[in-house]
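U., I forgot to send this yesterday:
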Amino acid sequence: VHGMAAGGWLGTLLVVSTIGLRTITMLPPERRGHAAAELINAFSTFALLCVSTLFVTGTIAAWSHLPTISALWKTAYGSALYRKLIFIALTGLVGAYNWRIIRPRLTSPGTVAVLRKSATVEITIGVIVVLLTAILVATSPPDSDDMPMAAQRTTPASVSQPLPA
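Result:
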């Protein structure tokens, strides 16, 4: 589900920025803003669904693979995940910029070109996230044995077991 949501978001963004916005630039100037607004409004709904799905499934995956929060900076897997999260945050900032700044100004002259550049930046960061994901999936998640004893989660099973004599 996580991979499908990522592909849906990044793939649709690629189509919107390469085909959709290029087609809009072929329209008469007085129709470009309205056409761009319709395209971006349609994409935004789908993008928000994909990003919400990515957030939920990514949080569940991180929670199930990391024994503690400190594993983000104490293990190779956590480090790879942390780097991915940084670039995801950058992608979110570009998306928020598009949504809050560019989208309301789509009827202004030249805004479609700015949107196209911004979408290119978002796609570039998205490709970096995909590359970081490849590194992440090639890295073994940490076992609780990889963490210092003080950082391990205490489970009822480990509390109830008698200590060796």
